[in-house]
Design brief:
By secondary structure, the protein is an alpha/beta fold. About 30% of the residues lie in helices and about 20% in strands. It folds into 3 domains: about 5-55 and about 445-485, Urease, subunit C, domain 1 (Roll), CATH 2.30.40; about 55-285 and about 345-420, TIM Barrel, CATH 3.20.20.140; about 290-340, D-aminoacylase. Domain 3 (Dna Ligase, domain 1). It contains 17 helices and 20 strands. Strands 1, 2, 3, 4, 5, 17, 18, 19 and 20 form a 9-stranded mixed β-sheet that branches. An 8-stranded parallel β-sheet has the order 6-7-8-9-10-11-12-16. Strands 13-15-14 form a 3-stranded antiparallel β-sheet, with no helix packed on it. It binds zinc ion.
């Protein structure tokens, strides 16, 4: 009788901590890693040959909008195919719960395709995700923008009143009690832009009590980025919460090179309070189509338009020429719509990714007709392009920024390392061939070199397709904190 369920044999282990690769067999029992021992010493009921491959912890995508994608597309191929075994959802101020309205408006439609997937409380939403049995894990933030819509309806172009702040505060408090792991804000966006620093800090107050994190799509990632960083740091400090700045970038040509200002500012602030940030490995961003973003982008591609058919994947400049109007006018005619903006400097992206505070998050938008390639390509691109080909950092460090560091910053207990007792979230990949294949022209394309992906011991991806395992869980605050306490 074999002692273990699965043994991953003859691989080189990148254990997630940044420690140098070492040869070992990794044995799994149930949903856990049971042993990591010299090659040839362990026996499993089934075995996975990892000769020539790296055995790493499953990647943690810390920046996603996959809240309801976990329900609608439970195989989660766009993430499992990259080796991702956990997605942190609800970023940028928008979450699928708690949502008290019955209609899903433009802003919420970014993350919700079927209105029955929204939920009035977090517990109800978590139950929907669990019932869908996704292939990978989800952890969830509560969006300050979503809270605003609950408390203020459509009247969002002002600071919330004291009683509205209380409604938002109490909804966040209840959501954290029920298992959300923190709050996100998106002060850049119209639904939240009128919010004051005080408003956000007061709404976020329950984070301290529950040990929740605060993630921020900052008010400004361009000219006023330093001020926006100060605001973010103040909110985290006042709420007693650890901070993760979302998709750190210096946006717009006039701000190229300004990582020499922002990164030292992060380094200094990190000495005072717990701060980290996530980065995606591309010089283009993607969100809704906004005419005030057209000027600072070198190029704009349309990802979807509800108004005009056949626009997905096209350059807005060409669309404007055909329409015989300005780009701004063309954008107005396509609304509501989404877009990709080429607005970053490659050197800045690399500097951010290599900073000690950086971890990797895709910011992929799962329901776009012609998505940004980061949705399918982020993690293999970091491993293949940035680590192997450009040698921006070692393979071990690349893995660390996608696993243990991410798990620590989001307090995902017993995830992100190859270590006995940890959950069997694992990615086996070929270090010589791993690479993204999703491009701006053809964005829906699984990466190369991702061999086998297991989530809680079940096969989420194998041989270029979903593995049929549906072992994903909702990682709830109370559960991960109880496990951390148990040691
Ligand atoms: Zn964002």
């Amino acid at each position: 009788m074999a002692e273990y369920d699965i043994v991953i044999r003859n691989g080189q282990v990148a254990d997630g901590t940044g420690k140098r690769l070492f040869a070992a067999d990794v044995a799994l029992k149930g949903d856990r890693i049971a042993a990591v021992e010299p090659p040839g010493t362990l026996k499993g009921a089934s075995e996975i040959d990892a000769t020539g491959k790296v055995v790493a912890p499953g990647f943690i995508d810390v920046h996603t909008h996959d809240d309801t994608a976990l329900i609608d597309n439970p195989a989660m191929a766009m993430k499992a195919s990259q080796g991702v075994t956990t997605v942190v959802c609800g970023n940028c101020g928008v979450s699928a719960a708690p949502y008290l309205n019955t209609e899903v408006g433009h802003w919420m439609s970014l993350i919700i395709k079927k209105k029955e997937n929204a939920s009035k409380d977090f517990a109800g939403f978590a139950a929907k995700v669990e019932a869908a049995k996704p292939a990978i894990n989800g952890a969830f933030l509560i969006g300050h923008g979503t809270l605003r819509m609950n408390a203020m309806g459509d009247d969002l172009n002002r600071v919330a009143t004291a009683s509205e702040i209380k409604v938002m505060h109490d909804l966040l408090d209840q959501s954290l009690e029920q298992g959300a792991i923190g709050m996100s804000s998106g002060l850049f966006y119209a639904v939240s832009n009128a919010a004051s620093t005080d408003e956000v800090a007061e709404v976020a107050a329950p984070l301290g009590k529950w040990g929740g994190v605060y993630t921020a799509h900052m008010r400004d990632e361009g000219d006023d980025i330093l001020k926006a960083m100060d605001e973010t740091f103040e909110i985290g400090r006042r709420a007693g919460a650890e901070i993760i700045v979302s998709h750190h970038k210096c946006s717009g040509r006039s701000n190229f090179g300004r990582m020499v200002e922002t990164l030292p500012k992060f380094t200094d602030a990190m000495k005072q309070q717990q701060i980290a940030f996530d980065v995606y490995p591309y010089i283009a961003g993607s969100t809704i189509l906004r005419s005030d973003m057209l000027e600072r982008a070198d190029k704009v591609l349309i990802t979807w338009s509800d108004k005009v058919a056949g626009m997905s994947g096209r350059d807005l400049k060409d669309i404007a020429r055909e329409m015989g109007c300005s780009m701004k006018e063309a954008a107005d005619r396509l609304q509501p719509a989404g877009a990709i903006y080429f607005m970053m400097d490659e050197k800045d992206v690399q500097a951010a990714m290599a900073h000690p505070g950086a971890m990797i998050g895709s910011d992929g938008i799962p329901f776009d007709a012609h998505p940004h390639p980061r949705l399918w390509g982020t993690f293999p691109r970091v491993l293949g392009h940035y680590s192997r080909d450009l040698k921006l950092f070692s393979l071990e460090d690349a893995v660390r920024r996608m696993t243990s560091y991410s798990a620590q910053r989001f307090h995902l207990t017993r995830r992100g390392e190859i270590k006995p007792g940890f959950y069997a979230d694992i990615c086996v990949f070929d270090p010589a061939t791993v690479i993204d294949t999703a491009t701006f022209e053809k964005p829906i394309s699984p990466a190369r070199g991702i061999d086998t992906v297991l989530c809680n011991g079940q096969v989420a991806w194998r041989d270029g397709k979903p593995g049929g395992g549906r072992g994903g869980r909702v990682l709830k605050r109370q559960d991960i904190q109880a496990e951390a306490k148990a040691g």
